[in-house]
Structure formats: structure tokens, C-alpha cells
Amino acid sequence: MQSPTVLPAPPIGRRTGRVLVVDDNPANRLLLRELLEPGGYEVVEVADGAAALEMVITQPPDVVLLDVQMPGLDGFEVCRRLKANEATVAIPVVFVTALGARSDRIAGVRAGADDFLTKPVDRVELVLRVGNAIAGHSLYLAAHAQYRQLQDLEAMRDALVHLLVHDLRSPLAGVMIGLELVQMRLGTADPKTAGILTQALQSTRRMADMVSDILDVYRMEEEKFPLQPELLDLNEAIAAAVRLVPQGGERVVHANAQALVPASADRNTVLRVITNLVDNALKFAKAGDTVTVTATITEQGARVSVTDTGPGVPPEARSMIFEKFGQVRGMKQTRRSSGLGLRFCKLAVEAHGGAIGVESDGVTGSEFWFSLPSA
Hints:
- The strands form three sheets. Strands 2-1-3-4-5 form a five-stranded parallel β-sheet, with helices on both faces. A five-stranded mixed β-sheet has the order 7-9-10-12-11. A two-stranded antiparallel sheet has the order 6-8.
- It is elongated and about 100 Å long.
- It has helices at 26-36, 49-58, 75-84, 102-111, 123-186, 191-221, 234-244, 267-283, 341-351; strands at residues 18-22, 42-46, 63-66, 93-97, 115-118, 230-233, 251-254, 262-265, 290-298, 301-308, 355-360, 366-372.
- By secondary structure, it is an alpha/beta fold.
- The chain starts with 17 loop residues before the first strand and ends with a strand.
- Helix 6 (191-221) packs across helix 9 and helix 8 runs antiparallel to helix 9 (341-351).
- It folds into three domains: 18-121, Response regulator (Rossmann fold); 149-221; 230-372, Histidine kinase-like ATPase, C-terminal domain (Heat Shock Protein 90, 2-Layer Sandwich), CATH 3.30.565.
- Strand 11 and strand 12 form a beta hairpin.
């Protein structure tokens, strides 16, 4: 009994599409057309490389079947130009050639070819290779469309957040002024009420700081954040920043405070960077934990380090935490945040021509650092 014929598995995704055949030999073009059209493929033919480049722009195909040895522009040059053009780089190019030497294949790979078929062409192999190339191109187009859609959605979200946050500034300022007036009139006559007012005022100021962080991140991303560099002692800046950070049962230690560490930077912006980094360390601290801030001079410039004894930052999260709204899952915070403090730090430091990063074993403790050009 004769065994049934086993057909090759069909390619993943869409099997039909538009195929551009580029070959100076009419017989070869006719053969490829006759092999592909029964499978539902739309076949378009051109006889030289210049016509192929024009056709790809005016009527983009799903795959290009490209001969190598042609007068004028050969296949390698056509492929190089297609892969160098942003509009055509994603279109798969399959060389269909009688050249089978290893050096020819290497030249094709260097030109950017996605696949090779050797003449004489086998029909089953041709249909499979073309089908898979078109399927891959379809997946790319779908992913690219989704990416563009995500970009549009992110732009809409950013615009909405910017609008809402901008409109929050005036009401928050009114609340703070009202609380400050009540606090001034009440004085210390009622200690319990005075304590509640102080907490309310601190919370309102913290909300105002979050609003400022959000707005300033957008301004920095649009390169509309003005910087006024001056000669600055980073130890003096650290001391001023630490005084601005509310502390609970945790301790903030300013180490090496006597040494002069000069830098050329915008003072207020650097203060906010240090404040954000210290506040970030305190968010994950427990009562009795220590946060140490140091300033040193290195070969790369003036460096500030904020070291904590908290839970540590996992390796996979070290780049994400400097992105907009970046949060590390599984790390318990003792204080809430906008998710923009570290993003502000990154943009601010890089606007000065500096660098920022984090070192951690991912288990216990982290060191957030940034460097600035030394003065």
C-alpha cells in the first residue's frame, strides 16, 4: 500500500499577497508568475533594478523576489537601497539567483537580504518561502500599526495629564494660603488642632510638589525648562536639600560634609534632584533605617550618592524606574509618589551634561548616584 503524500505545513499567518518579481529574463519572470498565481498571489513584474526601486515606492509589495545578475543596478545594490530607505526597509527581499557560492550568500546578507532561493526554483520551496516572508511582513505591519496607536494614546494621555495638572495649581495654591492663614491666627492656642493643620499643610505642599514635578517633566521633555548654571558646592546643596525632606523614624546622614565639592549647575534644580533622591530612599525605609548622602570628586566630575538600607532594586527594574510613571512592582512603599520624581532627576541631570544611575544587589540597599561637570 502506497503511503499518502505528506504536504509541507502552511506558513504562519497570511498566505497571499503582492509579490514583486525583479529579473531581466522574461522566461524567469513568467515561470515565477506561473508558480505563484495559482496560490492566490498577485504577481507584478519589472525587468531591472531602477524600475524595481520605483515600483516599491509607488506600489509597495509584500515581498520582493530579486535576481542578482542584472544590467545596470544589480540585485545586491537594489537590496542595499531598499534596506537603506526607512519607507522600504521592512519589505522582505528574497534573492532568486543561480549564484550559490558561500561568498555570494555573504554578499547578499551584507546587502540586507531576508532569504535566498537557488535556481532552478522548486515550487514547494518557493511557495513556502514567499508565504513565510509575507506572513512576517504582515506581522510587522500589524505591530507597527499597534505601536503607532500606542504612541497616539500616550500623546493623548500626556496632553490630558498636563491639562489637569496645570489646572490643579491654582486651587492648591488657594488651599495652602488658606491653611497658612488659619495656622497664623490659631497659633499654639489649641495644640491638637495646630498639629492637624500642620499635617494638612505638609500634605498640601507635597501635592503641590508632585504637580510641579509633573509639569517640569513635560517642560524638560520639550526642552523648555530654563537652567541657570552657577558655581555650586554640592555639600552645601545637600545640606539644604536634606532640610527640605520631611523625616519620620528614619535618619538622613550627610557624610563628608566638610569637603568642598564644586560643580557648575543650576542650584534650585540640583536641590530638587537631591531632594527627590533622598525622598525616594525614605519611601522604602522603615523606622530606624539610615539614608546616607555623600558628595565626592571623581574623574567623571562631581558625584552625589544617596545610599539606603531598604529592600534594594531588582536588576530588571534599574532602567525602568527612571522612565515616566515607572514603578517597581513588589516593592512596598511607606509613602505615595507620582512616579515622576526619578524621571525628573534623569532629565535634569542629563540637561546639565551629567549622568545618573543606581547600584544595588537587588536584596538589601541601593545607591542612587548622579554626576555633574565639576567646576
